[in-house]
Amino acid sequence: MRRIVVAALLWMGLATPAFAAPLKIGYSAWPGWFPWKVAEAKGLFKKNGVEVQMVWFEGYADSITALVAGKLDANCQTLNDTIAPAAAGAKLKVVLTNDNSAGNDQIIVKKEIASIKDLKGKKLGAELGTVDHYLLLLGLQKEGLTQKDIQFTPIETGAAAAAFAAGRLDGVGVFAPFTTKALSTGKGKVLFSSKEFPGAISDHLVLREEVVKARPGEIEKIVKTWFDTLDYIKKNPEESLQIMAKQAGTSVAEYKSYDSGTRIFNLEQNLVTFAPETKDPINLRYQSKIIADFLVKSGLAKTKPDTAVLFEDKFVRALKP
């Protein structure tokens, strides 16, 4: 009888088997995801009764590949980097909005390059098919250019920043904290950034669909931990900054410089992002259609997925007061 009751509770997501493995969450270098390190360091997952293994990736694209391959239960990634694999058949669910990029994704170029139109014929690098490749293409499109008008080099983000600093590229698409490396020689400048494209780059906790179906109770606790972590950071700013800067490999002062370029989202803002479609730039249903169209048009995706099925808002709604 007890087994039948437990099975029923598990089916409803109200109980978790004692033998369940920790949920593996991938994350990489981005200011909007470093708060997860605070959650891990201060035991906030365990405080909420959920076992989590945070898995660090030096290369952002590797974390996306690991999620799609089933080596992770969840990953921290952008909306456009979720739509692209979904277009290829991956079954994924966005359950949380960590932030919107508001300047920390940057196209950095040599100082003599005065405008986007001046990029024609220049050597530019970015991580193929990911967030700053997308940003680069958005900027080019704005001025009537395409990737065919530049010499594009696909290169991992950290390596891209180093290549630009070494003078091997005319420009590069990178995100914080790699922006610091790219600008370290004083020979570069920011030509444009995600600040010019509000809502275009949003960052999320994304899970494999099968995990969402199998372990909803744990996922709700993880989502709650995100908001508990933001509260902890607000109450303990100096300690939290030390933890996040260490994970980022930067000084606290450098880390503070990223604040204005990343708009961290609280519960109320999450509810807005998951709301029925409006033309608000942070609305995910609206923005996802724009991204899907762009990815197909630019050749980054072969087919346009049904983006409506990507969003699972029940976990943030469950936390609404």
Low-confidence stretches: 1-19
CATH superfamily of the largest domain: Periplasmic binding protein-like II
Structural class: alpha/beta
**Beta fraction of the residues?**
15-25%
Distance between the termini: 36 Å
CATH class (first level) name of the largest domain: Alpha Beta
| Overall pLDDT level | 93
- Give the CATH architecture of the largest domain: 3-Layer(aba) Sandwich
Shape: globular
Strand order of the largest sheet: 2-1-3-10-4-11
Helix amount, in percent?
40-55%
Total beta strands: 11
Alpha-carbon Rg, integer? 20 Å
What is the chain-wise order of helices and strands? HEHHEHEHEEEHEHEHEEHHHHEHHH
Number of helices: 15
What count of domains describes the coordinates?
A: 2
CATH fold annotation of the largest domain? D-Maltodextrin-Binding Protein, domain 2
Largest sheet: 6 strands, mixed
Keywords: Signal, Transport
GO biological process, one term: cellular response to sulfate starvation
Subcellular location: Periplasm
Family: Belongs to the bacterial solute-binding protein SsuA/TauA family.
Please give a structural write-up.
The radius of gyration is 20 Å and the shape is globular. The protein has two domains: 2-100 and 201-317, 3-Layer(aba) Sandwich (D-Maltodextrin-Binding Protein, domain 2), CATH 3.40.190; 105-196, D-Maltodextrin-Binding Protein, domain 2. The model is unreliable at 1-19 (pLDDT under 50). It is 41% helix and 19% strand. Helix 2 packs across helix 11 (237-248), helix 5 (80-87) packs across helix 14 (284-297) and helix 10 packs across helix 11 (237-248). A six-stranded mixed beta sheet has the order 2-1-3-10-4-11, sandwiched between helices. The protein has 321 residues and is α/β, with parallel strands linked by helices. Residues 22-230 form the Solute-binding protein family 3/N-terminal domain.
